[in-house]
Specification:
about 375 residues; mainly alpha; Rossmann fold; three-stranded parallel β-sheet; binds zinc ion
Amino acid sequence: MIKKIDISKKYNLPSEVHFCKKCVISNQRPRIVIDSEGICSACRYFEYKSKIDWDKREEELLELLDKHRSCSERYDCVVPSSGGKDSAFVAHELKTKYGMNPLTVTWSPLKYTDIGWKNLNNFNDSGFNVILGMPQGDIKRKLCREALIEMGDPFQGFIYGQVLFPLTIAIKFGIELIFRGENAEAEYGGSPESWNKKYLSIDEFKKIYFSNYELDFWLKKGFERKDLSFFYPPNPDELKDKVCNSYFYGYYRNWSNHSNFYYASKHTGFEPNVRRTEGTYTKYSSIDDKLDTFHHWFALLKFGHGRCTSNAAREVREGYITREEAIALVHKYDIEFPNLYFKEFLEFTNLNEDEFWNIAAAWRNENLWKTQGNDWVKKYPVK
Ligand SMILES: [Zn+2]
């Protein structure tokens, strides 16, 4: 039995729950701010984006590319790429529209879905060299289990690799330019200081994505340095005098999940799933990992919003659905438990069902959930 965690205190969440008047997100998302007019910072960022001069931003992009363009067989940029629609758009546009020579780097999911593996191969077939990083399975599983218990997030091990592995490869190949997709911090509710960031330094990435759990933390939890060596970036001596920043392609080009989907379908053979992802209504976002539904489900326990809320909020901002439609979708799908791969998740983490539900109970935010018969329901459903 693990000790009950005070989620609101741990993540410094407001005690009163308020929802954005424009989308369906609440102030329980870490770092989001709802202003005096009742509008969240993610919606404000979308308003801001609609006023950006994108031609000017493209000129800035060309300037940056010209500084790094190899004009030879040498790679001139790294694109961290899962084979998904967003990274496929970035890599393909850099290569075909702007004449760059990208090396694409994939950090493997915890457990590939068939469609995810197919999409990575389709992307590879469409004309890209891919370096696939796959950490040893026993360590990956152990880290998944320990991070679930320690942080209420089975996905932290994946996040280390996703942030650090492309950097390692860039350094090894002498590449100084990395292109990631959208600036997630700005797109999903970070403060206005994040809105105009062209890139993040590695220290800024760590601050946002490692949730105060540096890799070294796990050495105290029984992991050895050699267990995690594949996760660690090059040592600081190797990085000395080398500038290698991760730029946001979404700073330079107007970013849309919908357009990226159509682009990747047309150019890199991207295919959506045949079924919707559990916990939401979409079929084309983050479909390569069987187990990432548990990352979203644990976020639901902690912050009261699941994958459907994130997807629907985004589509309201982009104007594809109304707030009323989004609310209906959230009520229908947000708290759906990811049954499809539950057995595989238990086997992967070496947990039995009782252990799993004990961990879930410890991470369920008491301020946001109440029992109703045998079920847990949200205390504050969006309305
Ligand atoms: Zn909003």
